[in-house]
Amino acid sequence: MSRMMSFPVRAATLRNLYHPPRRQFSASAVHSSKVSILGAAGGIGQSLALLMKLNPLVSELALYDIKGGPGVAADLSHINTQSKVVGYGSSASGLAHTLNGSDMILIPAGVPRKPGMTRDDLFSSNASIVRDLAKAIADAAPNANILVITNPVNSTVPIVAEVLKSQGVYNSKRLFGVNTLDAIRASRFISQIKGTDPANENVPIIGGHSGITIIPLVSHSGHPDISGTTLDELIQHIQFAGDEVVQAKDGAGSATLAMALAGARFADSLLRANHGQKGIIETAFVDNPLYKDQGIDFFASMVELGPDGMQKIHQVDKLSPYEENMLKRALPDLKKNINRGVDFVKETA
Ligand SMILES: NC(=O)c1ccc[n+]([C@@H]2O[C@H](COP(=O)([O-])OP(=O)(O)OC[C@H]3O[C@@H](n4cnc5c(N)ncnc54)[C@H](O)[C@@H]3O)[C@@H](O)[C@H]2O)c1
Ligand SMILES: O=C(O)C[C@H](O)C(=O)O
């Protein structure tokens, strides 16, 4: 696509996840971020909270869940890292206490899939949860970075944007749909084909976070030679890996552990960029100019993170014909998912 420009592939690796190069921060900046998790007692929420408790860039961890927030906080508060942990249960004041002063808010609140469901089938349960949490964020922490994990991400991110717009506090640079799990899976799966260390593999992910809207750019990975049936199977594996986990859990939910790691990695990358580390690039589903002329306001790209959130979107200079075809198939679905979220807020505000 001619509109795309080149980008350097330099996503944070798992290897440096909890070893941020501290010497790049001033002493006072090292333990300085309040991070909140909404839905903190869930499958993702608990493991994510554990990983954030281990992150030296977090000074305060605030945990909110309609069920079990204080219990998870009490448990984590005994871990011997410096951050303070507070937890709240279901109440407007608990949510406000959680959000007040937050630099970063992670949202895994909501219902996961069961076998036979698409992510879009979660819309009827999760859209109103995310809308209401976004309203509370607009009131209590309008300047925070917001990381949306709740599915369907292709719709829940536009929901948050629309709510913040309606409250006059939308900052497109601080809203991220978390699709890091797709990048983690892609690096793992490609390493299994090539017999390499997944920590050294980066496959840029663009598009969205569901089925065919997930577009892995193998031609821009370290293995552009992968082709034919091997490529078909790899793409299918990445795009439908979530379904694989849903099937295997057999009614007990979807990916939680790998997702918690993915969320923690994205949060850590953003915290490090917020504290001044340069050159950190992750995939994220963001407000993106690339296809706005086709009515598609959100699109996952490789995004450079900075002190104020999203610093730069790195577009891709040349897609292979295979990838062009994936993109062509993905755009109509993506548009439908985004519009569903936008319309929901307009109709129910
Ligand atoms: N972005 C991704 O890559 C990705 C990956 C995996 C799962 N997910 C999604 O993340 C979401 C959570 O998955 P899970 O497995 O942790 O589910 P879960 O059911 O284990 O946990 C969800 C938690 O949210 C809480 N909750 C519900 N409504 C709430 C509200 N209004 N405020 C605060 N908390 C609320 C519940 O009490 C529960 O503890 C699902 O929508 C799932 O599809 C996204
Ligand atoms: O597949 C799901 O429903 C959860 C998540 O989006 C995933 O990719 O694992």
Automatic annotation (TrEMBL):
Residue positions binding NAD(+): 39-45, 65, 126, 149-151, 259
Q: What is its EC number?
A: 1.1.1.37
Domain (Lactate/malate dehydrogenase N-terminal): residue spans on this chain: 34-177
| Active-site residues (renumbered) | 209 (proton acceptor)
User: Which keywords label this protein?
Assistant: NAD, Oxidoreductase, Tricarboxylic acid cycle
Q: Which GO terms describe its molecular function?
A: L-malate dehydrogenase (NAD+) activity
State a GO cellular component annotated for this protein: mitochondrion
Q: Which reaction does it catalyse?
A: (S)-malate + NAD(+) = oxaloacetate + NADH + H(+)
> Subunit structure, per the record?
Homodimer.
The protein's name: malate dehydrogenase
Organism, per UniProt? Penicillium cinerascens
